[in-house]
Design a protein that fits this description.
The complex is a heterodimer of chains A (about 260) and B (about 425). Chain A is α/β, with parallel strands linked by helices. In chain A, about 45% of the residues lie in helices and about 10% in strands. Chain B is about 60% helix and about 0% strand. Chain B has helices at about 1-30, 40-55, 60-90, 100-130, 145-175, 185-195, 200-220, 225-235, 250-260, 285-290, 300, 305, 315-335, 340-345, 350-355, 360-365, 370-385, 390-405. The longest helix of chain B has about 30 residues, at about 145-175. The termini of chain B are far apart. The chains are: A alpha/beta (about 260), B mainly alpha (about 425). Chain A: InterPro entries: Cys_rich_dom (IPR004017), HdrC_iron-sulfur_subunit (IPR051460). Chain A: Keywords: 4Fe-4S, Iron, Iron-sulfur, Metal-binding, Oxidoreductase.
Chain lengths: ~260, ~425
């Protein structure tokens, strides 16, 4: 867990050398710019390096998928972003895309094909689960010994794309067990940030959605809460801070759990 | 013969009134826009068997779910009996389906048992509404009219079952030397009461069938239109992933033009409006959803915005859609307008912007309505036709346009995360 520069291959550099990686890692805007979530992007890149996966990122050529614009009603902006991204992706003849952000994942997987972007889009939790099952990720150490964990389902992973088991399997591979929340899997409660809520104040109400969810997590009396989405991470981290529970309860991304278990 | 004539007159009136109601709704449907194409019939059939006939979404609330499922399955069996009654009435026959032998016994026996079960459950449903304060049965969209609509429909169903039992009891009493079919509940009643109950057969039969005729014509004006439309609504459901929000094709054309100025501009396909402002902009499926919705409120019950006290109630969106069509439909059919619209006169911007598109509502909806997609359709209107997004969202749009990210960071810094 040093802060040294990570070796992350960039698509344009590989292309210049005439190389084509197997996977494109779609970092997403949060992975690129959000202070907290940058750590998740780093964790995942470290895991890819550890596995010696042939991959690259788009770097400066990556642009917002347009998810938030689309869900805020700006279809024009969404499709402009989509067409430009598809141009770049098709230019590199990308076949497989791995996403950490479930919003990017959902958009690339479900909404790009009709605009000419046809890729095999993989969520990183599925990828990690597969690597563990295949015995390629050996998780012998548990740096969290004696600690309990719960998992918060991101809507765009769970209800949206029915990915419920993969992230749980990954967490279980390290923790042994996941303590389920009262509202979990398809009953999971939103963190409050989807549908472009991340970028605006919430409407008037009695409570913030992330507080409602954080209270439910606190009630579960666990040491950690795993998440698999940058927006959920922001909302839960803020919720825990507001509730003054930072010492008892921390939010970790699924990738960070693996990173720590592998001591990368 | 008189019975036959009287029956045929009632049947003709029933069908006539029903046809009139269908014609009215058909005209309203014609005001709406196309929806997704209905393909994959095989997948749709298995989806319908699972969600509608298997009641799998209803069981997400196990106790009340089981009661609903039993009422639904009971209805299916009893409907076979109702078809027999219509044929008997029209041709002056008695128990005309009896020739199906063991199948008839099974259908009649289960119908007879279900009738009793349904009476018990309907009474429970009714008391649940009048005595228990269930949160999802309240809300601004739940008017007294909606409450009475529910109670009236429940009474209809209860009386339908009572009259069916009365008919069965009377029939058994009139045939002491053997009868067609098996009726466990009614036979037990006959033994228990030990009086001549044969007189119940005719009034039981008439009340039962006339109630069906009246109920059928009440339904198109009730939230219990659900009884007719829920199964087709599930069959016609959107089978795509919940969070796949369809791309707007008219925009695709415009974007392609912008990115490739040489592309030909086809003026004939100019769209009148982006997004949904009023009921004429919704798809026929949206309108069908609003007619099939029985306002159970499972959507609103799980809505994070609603749970935390915001104005948004997913159920209200579809209740409002139906109400607005009732208001503007008859005028619009004649080419008239009233200066009002679904947005603002019924649904406020505050409601629309409170949605997190988490799809908990759509996941829960027992008849597969997608509330977030319609909410986003209305956001499309606000943003693309009126530029009326909240200021923070406009800032987010500007960031994406200028920097390719929703936040104000330079694309040049996109690899900074690798530097630690």
């Amino acid at each position: 867990m040093t802060d040294k520069k990570l070796h992350v291959p960039v698509m344009a550099d590989l292309a210049a050398k005439g190389e084509k990686p197997e996977y494109l890692y779609w970092v997403g805007c949060a992975g690129a710019f959000d202070d907290r979530y940058q750590k998740v992007a780093r964790a995942f890149a470290k895991i890819l390096n550890h596995l010696e996966v042939s991959y690259a990122v788009l770097g400066k050529e990556e642009s917002c998928t347009g998810d938030a614009a689309k869900r805020a009603g700006n279809e024009m902006l969404f499709q402009m972003q989509a067409m430009q991204n598809i141009d770049v992706l098709n230019g590199y003849e990308v076949n497989k895309i791995i996403c950490t952000c479930p919003h990017c994942y959902n958009t690339l997987k479900n909404e790009y094909p009709e605009l000419g972007g046809n890729y095999d889009v993989i969520n990183y939790t599925e990828f990690l689960d597969e690597m563990i099952q295949a015995g390629k990720l050996k998780l012998e150490n548990n740096p969290f010994k004696g600690e309990t964990i719960t998992y918060h389902d991101p809507c765009y992973l769970g209800r949206g794309n029915k990915i419920y088991d993969a992230p749980r399997n990954v967490v279980k591979a390290v923790f042994g067990d996941v303590k389920e929340l009262k509202r979990s899997r398809s009953f999971g409660l939103c963190c409050g940030a989807g549908g472009a809520q991340m970028f605006k104040e919430a409407e008037k109400g009695e409570k913030e959605v992330n507080i409602e969810r954080t209270e439910e997590i606190i009630e579960r009396k666990v040491d950690k809460v795993a998440s698999a989405c940058p927006f959920c991470m922001t909302m839960l981290t803020d919720g825990i801070k507001l509730k003054n529970k930072e010492t008892e309860l921390q939010n970790l991304d699924v990738a960070e759990i693996i990173e720590k278990a592998l001591e990368l | 013969m008189t019975k036959q004539i009287l029956f045929l007159i009632s049947l003709a009136i029933t069908l006539g009134v029903f046809a009139w109601s269908v014609k009215r709704l058909w005209a309203f449907f014609k005001l709406t826009k196309p929806s997704y194409p209905i393909r994959n019939i095989g997948a749709r059939i298995s989806h319908t068997l699972d969600i509608a006939f298997g009641q799998t979404k209803i069981f997400r609330k196990p106790v009340i779910g089981l009661m609903h499922a039993l009422v639904f399955w009971g209805f299916l069996v009893i409907t076979l009996g109702s078809i027999e009654i219509v044929i008997d009435g029209a041709f002056g026959l008695e128990r005309s389906f009896a020739f199906t032998g063991w199948f008839y016994d099974v259908v009649m026996a289960s119908g007879d048992v279900f009738a009793l079960l349904i009476i018990v459950f309907i009474k429970a449903f009714s008391l649940r509404r009048s005595i228990m304060r269930i949160k999802r049965f309240s809300g601004v969209e739940m008017s007294p009219k909606s409450y009475w609509d529910a109670q009236i429909a429940l009474s209809f169903i209860g009386l339908l079952m009572l009259s069916l039992l009365a008919f069965n009891v009377g029939y058994i009493s009139n045939h002491p030397n053997g009868y067609e079919g098996v009726y466990p509940v009614s036979a037990a009643l006959v033994n228990l009461i030990n009086m001549d109950l044969g007189w119940l057969q005719e009034p039981g039969w008439w009340i039962h069938i006339l109630l069906i005729f009246i109920f059928a014509n009440y339904l198109p004006y009730s939230k219990h239109f659900h009884v007719f439309l829920s199964v087709p609504n599930v069959f016609l459901a959107n089978l795509e992933p919940l969070t796949k929000y369809p791309n707007l094709e008219s925009i695709t054309k415009e974007v392609k033009l912008m990115l490739d100025p040489e592309a030909a501009y086809d003026e004939s396909e100019e769209v009148s409006r982006f997004g949904v402002k009023d009921v004429q902009d919704v798809s026929w499926k949206n309108y069908m959803d609003s007619l099939a919705c029985t306002q159970c409120g499972r959507c609103t019950d799980v809505c994070p915005a609603n749970i935390t006290g915001k104005l948004l109630s997913p159920r209200k969106i579809f209740v409002d859609l139906r109400k607005r069509m009732d208001e503007i439909g008859p005028l619009a059919v004649k080419g008239k307008e009233d200066g009002k619209s679904l947005i603002r006169d019924y649904i406020s911007e505050e409601e629309l912007w409170a949605c997190t598109t988490c799809n908990a509502c759509a996941q829960e909806c027992p008849i597969d309505i997608s509330h977030p997609n319609l909410i986003m359709d209305m956001r499309r209107y606000l943003v693309m036709e009126e530029a009326a997004a909240p200021a923070e969202l406009n800032a987010m749009f500007t960031n994406i346009e200028n920097n390719g990210a929703p936040w104000q960071f330079s694309p040049e810094d996109r690899l900074k995360w690798t530097e630690g």
